[in-house]
Each structure stands twice: as C-alpha cells, then as structure tokens.
Amino acid sequence: MVDVHGLSTDDLLKIYYYLRLTRASEDRVIKLYRQGRVFGGVYVSNGQEAISVGSAYAFAPEDVTAPSHRDLGANYVRGLTPREYFAQYLGRATGPTRGRDGNVHYGDIKRGILCFISPMADLLPVVAGCALAFKIRREPRIAAGYFGDGASSRGDFHEAVNFAAVLRLPVLFICNNNQYAYSTPLSRQMAVPHVADRAKAYGIPAVIVDGNDALAVYAAAKAAAERARTGGGPTLIECKTMRMRGHAEHDDASYVPPRLLEEWRAKDPIQRLERRLREAGVLTDAGEQGIAERISREIEDAVQFAEQSPLPDGGGVTQGVYAV
Amino acid sequence: MVDVHGLSTDDLLKIYYYLRLTRASEDRVIKLYRQGRVFGGVYVSNGQEAISVGSAYAFAPEDVTAPSHRDLGANYVRGLTPREYFAQYLGRATGPTRGRDGNVHYGDIKRGILCFISPMADLLPVVAGCALAFKIRREPRIAAGYFGDGASSRGDFHEAVNFAAVLRLPVLFICNNNQYAYSTPLSRQMAVPHVADRAKAYGIPAVIVDGNDALAVYAAAKAAAERARTGGGPTLIECKTMRMRGHAEHDDASYVPPRLLEEWRAKDPIQRLERRLREAGVLTDAGEQGIAERISREIEDAVQFAEQSPLPDGGGVTQGVYAV
Amino acid sequence: MEPITYLEAIRQGLWEEMERDPSVFLLGEDIAVYGGAFKITKGFLEKYGEDRVIDTPLSEAAIVGASIGAALMGLRPVAEMQFADFISCGFDQLVNMAAKYHYRTGTPVPLVIRAPYGGRLHAGPFHSQCPEAWFVHTPGLKVVAPATPADAKGLIKAAIRDPNPVIYFEHKYLYRHEKGLVPAGDFATPIGVAAVRREGRDVTVITYGAMVQQSLEAAAAVAKEGIETEILDLRTLSPLDVDAIVAAAEKTGKVCIVHEATQTGGLGGEIAALVAERAFRALDAPILRVTAPDTPVPFSPPLEDAYLPKAEKIAARLRELAAF
Amino acid sequence: MEPITYLEAIRQGLWEEMERDPSVFLLGEDIAVYGGAFKITKGFLEKYGEDRVIDTPLSEAAIVGASIGAALMGLRPVAEMQFADFISCGFDQLVNMAAKYHYRTGTPVPLVIRAPYGGRLHAGPFHSQCPEAWFVHTPGLKVVAPATPADAKGLIKAAIRDPNPVIYFEHKYLYRHEKGLVPAGDFATPIGVAAVRREGRDVTVITYGAMVQQSLEAAAAVAKEGIETEILDLRTLSPLDVDAIVAAAEKTGKVCIVHEATQTGGLGGEIAALVAERAFRALDAPILRVTAPDTPVPFSPPLEDAYLPKAEKIAARLRELAAF
Ligand SMILES: Cc1ncc(C[n+]2csc(CCOP(=O)(O)OP(=O)(O)O)c2C)c(N)n1
Ligand SMILES: Cc1ncc(C[n+]2csc(CCOP(=O)(O)OP(=O)(O)O)c2C)c(N)n1
Ligand SMILES: [Mg+2]
Ligand SMILES: [Mg+2]
User: Fold this and answer.
1) Residue B69, SS3 per DSSP
2) Hey, which of A120, A175, A190, A247 would you mutate to test ligand 1's pocket, going by the most ligand atoms within 8 Å of its Cβ?
3) How do residues C269-304 score in pLDDT, each as one tens digit?
4) Active-site residue D171, yes or no?
5) What's the rounded Cα separation, in Å, for the pair C110 and C153?
6) N or C: which end of chain C has fewer CB within 10 A?
7) What is the DSSP code string of A45-99?
8) CA torsion sign, D248 to D254 to D260 to D262?
9) ipTM of model
C-alpha cells in the first residue's frame, strides 16, 4: 500500500484517473483545434495536471475553488464533466457558459467553482471575499485560488493576499510556477527565486512543493486547508513545475530552451504516479487498461455530445446581462 | 564635531533649519486653517520631518523625488519656497499648480520633484519609470519615491517595487511608517511587523531606520542612493515614526492611544537633532535664535506674499489640459 | 416628522437594511472604528459588530474583489470607496469581474459600491470627480445617483436589495447641504424610474444629482420671466428610464441636459442621443447641454466656480431655448 | 508600391519612429523576445536592443506608471497592452496620473498606450472589448482609432510625436483583414482631423475603426438602390473633429452613427449630442445609432455575430433614414 495521508486505494486510483482524464481531454482539444473545429485559443495544463488534481482532491464539497486557466484537473475533480468541457470549447449552448464565454472559462457556483476570467490574478481578491463570507458566517469552509507565477506580479495578487492575511481568512493561494508567463521567464517576472518568497511580505506561511507529484500536492493542500479551516489563516502553496507546451496552441514556445523541456519531460506527473501505484500494487495492467478505456469512451462520448449540441441562438444575445 | 557621513557643520545646520522650517510652516498653516483662511484639508508631517528632510538631503540635484503628502521637508530641501507653499494652500495663482491643485500637491519637474497625487502609492510606478529613463540613458541619477505604511497595501506599490527589482532600477522606496493610515493601525494594514518585510517579496534589500533621527535617515538614504547610482538596484527604507496629529486637521485622532503619542513626543526629531548639535557645539544659543528669526521672517513674508497674491482667474479654467 | 439631511438619510437606509437582513455587511477603509471619512457609518460597529462592519487595508481592488466573492457566497456586501475618485483603483474588478459575471454564468452578484462624488467643496482634482459615465457604459452594472434625502434613503435600500452590482453615487456637497422629508417606515425607491421634480410646458431639463437643486433654482429664476420648466431627475443612471426621458422631451420639445460631470463622453450625450432618436418629431430646438468643461476639477475657488455648472448658467440656456 | 496590412503599417510606423528619435522606446508584456502577442514588434529587440525594447513583468499599472515617469524624464515611451481589455488594470494610472498631470503642473507627459481592441475573432468577453469611450470621457487623454493602413501608420507616428498621453486603439480584426497603400516616405496623420471616406448626398454615416469598412459595404449596397451615403471616419476620438461632424451631418440632414462598442454611454451619444446641438436646423430625420447591444462580448460565433454591428444592419438603417 501507498500510505499517503489517509488516501485509500480508491482515492489513489481516482487521482490517477483525473490526471489522465485531464491529459486526454486536452490532447483531444488540441486535435480539434488543429482540425479547425475549436473557436478561439486553446490553453492546456500538459505536465502540470498534478497541481490542480492533487490540490482539488484535498478539498471538501462545500469548499470553493477558483481554478486558473491551467486547472482543468481541479474543475474535473469538482464535478465538471467532459461533455461540458468539450461543449465549452466548441462554443455550444450546452457548455457551462452557454457559449457566452469560451475555452477555460468554466465555473459553476453550485459545485464550488468560480468562473475564470482572463485578467491574471483577478480571482484572488474574489476568493478572499468568499473566505470572508465563511468567516463572517462561522462556516468551516475554505476557499482556494489558483494562479501562475506571472500573475503574482499583479497588484490584485498583492492586495488579495494582504487582505486575507490581515483578516486571517481561510484561503489557500495555490501557485503553479511553470517558470514562464507566456514568453516571459521567471527571472524577468520577479527578482526572487521562489514565488513562495512573496509570502514573506504578508506574514503567512508558504510551502514549496514538487508540482509534478500529485500526492505531495495533495498533502500540502490538505494540511493548508486544515489550518485554514481551523482559523489558522491563509497559506501560499508554490507548486514547481514546467509549462510543457506553448502559452496557447498557436505558440510554438521556441523561446524555451529545449533542454529544459527534456529535463521536465522525465518528471511527467502521470507516469510518476503510475509508477508509484504500480510499485505499490494499486495499479495493475488490467486496471490501467480499464481506466484508459473508460477515459477514451468518456471523451468520445463528450466530443460527440459537444458536436451534436446546438450552437447558442444569436437571438438570445442580450439575455441575462442582469439578474432579476 | 558630529561626524556623520561627511556632513559639514554647514550641512548639519541646514538640515536643522529645514526641519524647523517645515515644522513652523505647517504650524502656521494649521493656524490659517483654524482661521478659515485655507481652502480644503490640511495634511502635516509634525513629528516626522526628519524622514523627508534627512533623506532628501542625501540626494543630488539631478536626482528625482516623489514626495508624499507628509513630505513637505523633502520639497523644501529640493527648493520649494515657503512662498510657494503658502500660495498653494491659499489656492493662489502664484502657487506651484497655479490654483489648479491644492494643499500638498506641489511639484516641479525642474527641481526634480514629481507632483503628488492623492491615490496612495500611485507615484511609485512613476518613480520606477523615471529610474528606467536614467538606466536607459546611462545617467548616474536616482529616483526616490515616498509612501506611507497604508500605501504599501496597494497594488501599485507591489507592481512598482517588483518592476524596479526585476529591471534593477536605481530607485529608493522610502516609507514613513507612522503606524496609522488615517484611522487604521498598522496591524490592520499588514500581518507583518515591519513594512521592510515587504521587501523580501522582491529580492531587494530593506533597511529599518529610526525615522525621528534625521542623521540616521540621511545616512541610510545616502548609502542606498550610492548603491542605486552604481547599478545596485532598488532599496526599501522603512523609517519608523509616529503620526503626531490627526490624519488631516479635521481629525482629532481620538482613535490613537494617548500613551503612544506621549511616548513619541519624547522622541521629537527636532529637539533630538538640536540636542545633538548643541552637544557637539555646532549649534549655539545665538545660532538657534538666528535660525528661528530667519524662519519666522521667511514665513511672515511667505504668508503675506500668499495673501496678497491673486486668486487664479476663473476664465482660465479650461487652459492647459493638453500640452501643445 | 422632521426633515433630515441627505447624509442622515443614507445612514438610516444602511442602518435599517442591516437590521432587516443579516446578510448585509459593510466594508471599506476607516468605516468601522472611525465611522467613515464622512461619518456615515458612525455607530455601526458598536451596533452590528466587527463581523459586519469591517475596516480593510488600503486596497480598493481587494475591497471590490472581496465584495464580489462575498456576494457570490450569498452575502450582501456594501463597500465604501472613501472617495469616488479612488474607484479607478478597483476599476478592473468592477468592469471585468462584477459586471460580466452574471451574463457568463447566470450567477447573481448582489453588491453595492458606495461612491462619494462631486465637487463644490474645494477638494481639488482627486476628491471631486464625477466618474459615473464610465460605469453607465459598462453593461452589467447598475448606477444610481440620488438628489434628495428621500431618494438617498430609498435608493440605498433598493441598491442593497437588488441582485446586481450597483454603484451608488452619493454627492458629497449634498451630504450636509440638502435636507428633506423622507417617507415613514420601510420603503425603497425603484431602480430605473426617474422623477419629475417640477412641471412645466416651455422647456425641459433632464438632470440628476447635485444639479437637480441647481436646475430647480434656475427654473425658479426663469419662471419670473414666464418660462415654465419641466425638470426630470433621472435618479437611476443605468438602466435609464427611457420612457420618462422621451416623455419629458416631447412635452416641451426643448431640452437642456445638465450634469456636473465633464461634457465630452458624459451622460448628456446618451440622453441627447435618446431624445434625438426617439423624440425627434417633437423637437423644436437644438438639444443643449450644461456641464462641466473638459478639464480636471480645479482646486481654487474661482476656478472651481468657473468649472461647476450652476443655476445661472442653466437659466441662461433655458432662456435661449425658450426664445428659440 | 504594394498594399500592406494594417498590422504591417503599425509595425512600420513604430520602426520608423524608433529610427528617427532615439528617445522613443517600447515596453510591455512579451514584446521583446517574443515580438508581441500579435508579432507587431518582432525583430525590434534585435535591431534596437534591450534598452529600447523592454519585456516587463505582468503588471499593467506598473507599465502605465513607468511610462509616465519615463515621459516626465524626456523619453517617449510606447507601451503595449497585450489586449485592450487589460487596460482596466492600469486604469487609475491613466485617468488620474497621466491625464491630469499637465493641467496641474504644466509638464507634458508624452506617451502612447497601444491597445489592441475589438471583436470578430471569437475571443470572448475578455479579448474583444472596445473601451474607448471611458478615455474619451477623461480630459487630458487623446484617443485615436485608425481604420486603414495609411492611418494606422500615420496615427502611430502622430501619437508618438504628440506631447500628450495618447491611447492608440488598434483593431485586432483589421490587423490581417485590412490592406491598403500607405504614402511613401515620412508622414503623420494629424490628430483631431476626421476623413471623408465616401461622398454622398442622401444620408451620413459617422463612424470609426472596424466599422468604417462595414459602413462602406453598407453604402455600396444601398447605392444600388440609389441611396448615396456620406461616410465620415473620425480617426481621432479625442479631441473630436467637431467641424467635420457638423459638416457631415448638415450635408444630408440624416445621420446614422456606427460603432462597435456597446450602445449606452458609447461615443455615439456624444456625436449625437454634437449633431443635435450644432446641426439641428439641418436635421431631417431622427439620429440613429448602429452599435453593439449593451452586453459583454459573447464568445460563440452565433452570439458574436448577433452582437456585432455589420453592414446589413447599417444598410437597413440607411434605408430607413433615406425613406424618412
Ligand atoms: C492582466 C493581464 N495582463 C495580460 C494578460 C495576457 N496573458 C494571458 S496569460 C499571460 C501569462 C500568464 O502567466 P502565468 O501567470 O505564469 O500563468 P501560466 O500561463 O504560465 O500558467 C498573459 C501575459 C492577461 N491575461 N491578464
Ligand atoms: C487609493 C486611495 N484610497 C484611499 C485614499 C484616502 N486616504 C488618504 S490618506 C489615507 C491613509 C494613508 O495612510 P498612509 O499611507 O499610512 O500615509 P499617512 O497618511 O499615514 O502618512 C487614506 C485612506 C487615498 N488617498 N487613496
Ligand atoms: Mg507561468
Ligand atoms: Mg501611515
């Protein structure tokens, strides 16, 4: 047995499943994109899936998350379905935003997922506000905001973390440090080696975790969530990883040294967990094949569903600007 | 002799003079305010004069400063005249902004003073931009931005310091930590004990200095300026002090524990330098009296000048929105 | 019943809403211990406790963002900008996050931003602005701007009960200069409904905020000359009461639009466009505007006097229209 | 001479200005090594070096603020917003610092903000906005929005040479969809001067940006029915060419205003107001507007199609006007 923080065999296999579902979904969207069947840009988390899956798996259903644009995994863990994912990319009426927003801008308040918006770090003050509500109502819930290394340069990051620290709110700030912000390397984004160093400005604890190790991420998120839930205030979790593709699929990332990609390819989070589960006897060949088949079925079904779903009706364009 | 970083007797007496000129000018404006002769609010630096005077004295004429609303002293050191100061408070055409802006919003690019604007911390990115220009042109000049403890909670503070750190710009970020932001105490503004702790997020050095000791402030600013001038990048200087009056003159600051004020009154920066200069024989009774009389003359002259100056002509209201 | 001030009316409205609905809470800079820069929330901390009356760090983006998060979790935040001029520091959260959230996801964002605005207090370019047009041009936000104590109270209640983000522009000059009766008991002024403040057959003024009083004065002046003015107080700026605007324009065929904000791109343009499209056949004269000129708000009284639209300027235009 | 794209025209304009004036430099996210999200500054780093082509951290407030500082020190910064949608993150620096600085102090702030804007690329609510009206309503800023390659080149040059802060709205759809000849040699398109794109005696269209092309298409369509359309391309949105607007309106007495931005509070209102005041006597019909509806920009093609003003919608309104 792999004994990780009370995770059962079932849990471990689920985490493995979510990692692979995420990878496979994104790979499929890339294909659709190349076939010209997707509208707009495509943003993937290839090689970083362990961060969103591992952390989201640590939260309770009543908790709230604000995944960023490379956190499909967290959305899946919280209940987004592959059908919704593909319907969103194909701009269908059946997607989570009914075609009003696109690609990675899903979200459903009922499943505790805030809907991503493009300006980087904008969701962090919002997440602090969710946590403020929990604190005011004395609810044992936590809120988790995801962001990238580049987003940490924005004023909204600073104001959000400071606000949460001063009011001791139950928030996790989860950074995927994938070493690039679009074409901008970390060293051009900050003069500190770790995003975690930013936490020192706020008097909150920070942990650095191997972002390609789903179980390590899980453990860090679980511990920080417990702290937050019991009044210990916010934690910043920096997950070290590498962006393995371009910023979006139009970008060939030729500015990234190939050597860096090679180095990180060897650390692939899925292969890594797979090895571990196999060694521990949790995953067998048959088990692996079962999961692969299930995912392949789900994705085929989802793509079909999305493609057969209607595009939204242009006539409804002005509906729903205001709540009534 | 007091041997402070190469300051001559003349320098020491000048610093003393600027401290007293600042105090006396503000005391006089408070009087005018109570007499109803001032338009708008009155913001003073009573008890904090050593920060702006001591630091500004460390800069070269070609350097650039962006004083905040409690930095009259820095303006004086850079060449603002008492006449301009009072003309500004009285909204006269002869003030630095010709009545277009008020109170502490002076500034003159020719004297290397950026014009203060109200949104806290807004000048910090601008100061970084001045320093960027120096770096691009390879000029051995530095830029210094002043701000309060409260201002450090703003996103613009974060973006400015990070920007300056990444580009290694010749900037000083000088904080007057007077323990309050309007009615908000430091502990409600940040969860770290020192504003200097914020610097750790940016990989730049920070120093904490006794803000009521003009010579200590001078020394810290001088050292940081030299570092910046020779390519060493930005420094954050936190000057510990106490706001000795209300946020503005309408505010009786009843939210401040009286004990705190008492404690700090004993640390008055002017008395402190005076004692030191007397002990060192730099300042004599006669010398002190000469300075007092000079200041009193200058202020009388300035108030008269301001009161006799015309108010701006309303007819010109639309002039100068654009440069031509 | 006694007449109360506009300021007291806002206070009562907030107080009663907090009493009525435990999900209503306040946040902002210096609003709790100090009771707010204008003392509107004085006594609220003592009555409602620190969970519901929250002093925040100096960070407008965090304040707006946290309000959005709390609203998404089912609370009803009322955030104070210390001055409307600083709303630009939380602008992105308002226009990108708050305004678009419901359209994208169907989830309501019920929050109120209180924005003390307007001039005539010699407060200069950064404490006098009228930035309402930016928000009227942002679909998804509602904007109200009461002119009387009754509407100040009725609209703050309506804003708090509305399921959308509402910006509540409260005019600082009116705080203590405008008194009036307010209805007894609980009431709300419906959002989206304008009010005729004076009936007249000759010329129509369409206005809001502090300009209602100026327009009434102008109307009284020209009435002595036999010119009868219809005055429409918009009260809500977004959504506009288009029917009332068209009706008021058609009634006299001669329209003067009055606002304190600067002219170009101000709300006057929108109203003129509505009139010129929908009441064209009834028009007997050019549509005129009385507004501030296109400059920052100047500080010194002669400049500010020249800047502000006042009764005399309005009266002059009404005479022009009547003579047409 | 060969026709060039709108994108290439901007590139040439920037290139030539950098060659002409060593004080011109570029800053923004991903503009140097990567050459910009739209590759407009590709090759600039290699030619002009890293002092003049600067990749910044992800922080729009710092980018705008630093531009202001550099401008105050005598440089001519050209800052790129990666998308105009993110200009709201640097909004406060633009409207409070840049716009008001000259009026207050008499010191010019010569800078250019490049803002890639507009829809039709299925890029959703955060990569498609047309936020120009906010800035037209901000005295102290200039705003231009070229519609043709020649103006794209001529206006970027004029913007760089202008001593004021200029926001240069470049339409993303036009980048690669609009081709045309540009004058040989050095030239600048004067700021503040509109251009008649088509002469006609029956109806007038006043428009700008991507809507010029749509209006020309509409005019061609209705010309077959004998309706001759005058088309005025504003080119500069602030300051408006009021004389040209009035002349164009008076020529036909029937005015249709077209813009891609949402309707309420958009620039159409201002233009309608100018026409309804200054060309009233010449008007033969209601002033019409063809604009986007008051909603965020939707993502999915059928919704975006319904959202965007297009030639057919314009033609329908022209027929209405002609029949009036
Ligand atoms: C405020 C803002 N400015 C610019 C952009 C354009 N942009 C989109 S993603 C991105 C880089 C983000 O980097 P990071 O935060 O590290 O996230 P990553 O994509 O690496 O996961 C940029 C510059 C944006 N979305 N928001
Ligand atoms: C962005 C912004 N929000 C609010 C205000 C109102 N305000 C003026 S000064 C102040 C407190 C400033 O505190 P601090 O930065 O510590 O400076 P101090 O006055 O103590 O020197 C506040 C809240 C402002 N000027 N700017
Ligand atoms: Mg990154
Ligand atoms: Mg302070």
Assistant:
1) coil
2) A120
3) 999 999 999 999 999 999 999 999 999 999 999 999
4) no
5) 18
6) N
7) -TT-HHHHHHHHTTS-TTSEEE--TT-HHHHHHTT--HHHHHHHHTT-TTSTTTT
8) positive
9) 0.98
